[in-house]
């Protein structure tokens, strides 16, 4: 009969003992609540104890959590509009403050509150800067400013914002066409400037080359004239020396050259007086006057004319 009473007692004791024990995973933190009030904070992994049936245990993440914000439009200092979103990393550092801020909402409610904080911090920082700074290396400094503002605001939630990164900084769809057209116009203007500068440089090089050609050509012609003059002078000197050695032979050679030049070709004609000095070397030795016409052939049955006695050779021939 005693077993009937002992067994329920043992079961009740075991249930009571199990209800007073809880286990905290190394990835979790725990709060012990009694009628909604925080009675115990358990941040270390292991066993914990609580009052059975009266207190309850609520677990929260001890790991670093991520948050992707919703895209928002931001007006920059230069009146440019950008669509911006960010990614933040955060963790719970104060369980009591976190429980008071999010109540029963837990991490999901904290994500919503942090998203609101970031969507206020991003326009506050980017609204004081220009697009060039947002798209340059100064972007890191801007993200650190957003992180510091969000970290201060998030202290009331019992969380720490570890880092914030801007993941997208795009133009609104309605501004893309105008921005691309403006960028294209700027690039075309830069290209036209480069082409104009290149044309100017090419013109300078071409002018310098033309001037060099004229100078070199003039110098070469002057040198050619000098060389030609020296050659003519040397030739005249040689001719004068040869003429001085044998004037008659020299005159004969010059006459032959003149005959060759003037009688060149099949239809050459010369109109001058027969007794001209030009024909001096075409006459027979000792002959003076025009060149005699060739004698006509004698008629049939007629006596041949007497041959003329040859003229005596001139003295010295």
Automatic annotation (TrEMBL):
Record's keyword annotation contains Transit peptide: no
Pfam families: Band_7
InterPro entries from the UniProt entry: Band_7, Band_7/SPFH_dom_sf, HflC
One GO MF term: peptidase activity
Region (Disordered), start-end ranges: 285-317
Major site of localization recorded for this protein: membrane
Protein task: HflC and HflK could regulate a protease.
Name the record gives this protein: Protein HflC
Organism of origin: Pseudogemmobacter humi
Name of the coding gene: hflC
């Amino acid at each position: 009969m005693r077993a009937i009473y002992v067994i329920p007692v043992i079961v009740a004791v075991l249930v009571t003992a199990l209800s007073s024990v809880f286990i905290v995973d190394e990835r979790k933190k725990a709060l012990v609540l009694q009628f909604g009030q925080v009675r115990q904070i358990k941040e270390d992994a292991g066993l914990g104890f609580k009052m059975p049936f009266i207190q309850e245990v609520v677990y929260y993440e001890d790991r670093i959590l991520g948050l992707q914000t919703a895209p928002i439009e931001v007006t920059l200092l230069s009146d440019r509009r950008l669509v911006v979103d960010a990614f933040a990393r955060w963790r719970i550092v104060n369980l009591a403050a976190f429980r008071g801020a999010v109540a029963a909402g837990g991490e999901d409610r904290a994500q919503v509150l942090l998203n609101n904080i970031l969507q206020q911090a991003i326009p506050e920082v980017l609204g004081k800067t220009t697009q060039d700074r947002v798209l340059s290396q100064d972007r890191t400094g801007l993200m650190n400013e957003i992180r510091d503002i969000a970290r201060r605001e998030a202290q009331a939630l019992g969380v720490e914002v570890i880092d914030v990164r801007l993941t997208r900084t795009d133009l609104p769809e309605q501004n893309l066409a105008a921005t691309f057209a403006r960028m294209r116009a700027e690039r075309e203007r830069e290209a036209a400037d480069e082409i104009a500068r290149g044309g100017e440089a090419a013109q300078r090089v071409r002018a310098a080359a033309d001037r060099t050609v004229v100078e070199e050509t003039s110098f070469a012609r002057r040198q050619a004239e000098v060389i030609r003059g020296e050659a003519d002078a040397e030739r005249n000197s040689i001719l004068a020396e040869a003429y001085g050695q044998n004037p008659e032979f020299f005159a004969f050679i010059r006459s032959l050259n003149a005959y060759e030049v003037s009688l060149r070709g099949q239809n050459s004609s010369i109109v001058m007086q027969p007794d001209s000095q030009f024909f001096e070397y075409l006459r027979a030795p000792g002959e003076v006057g025009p060149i005699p016409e060739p004698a006509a052939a004698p008629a049939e049955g007629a006596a041949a004319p007497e041959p003329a006695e040859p003229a005596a050779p001139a003295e010295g021939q």
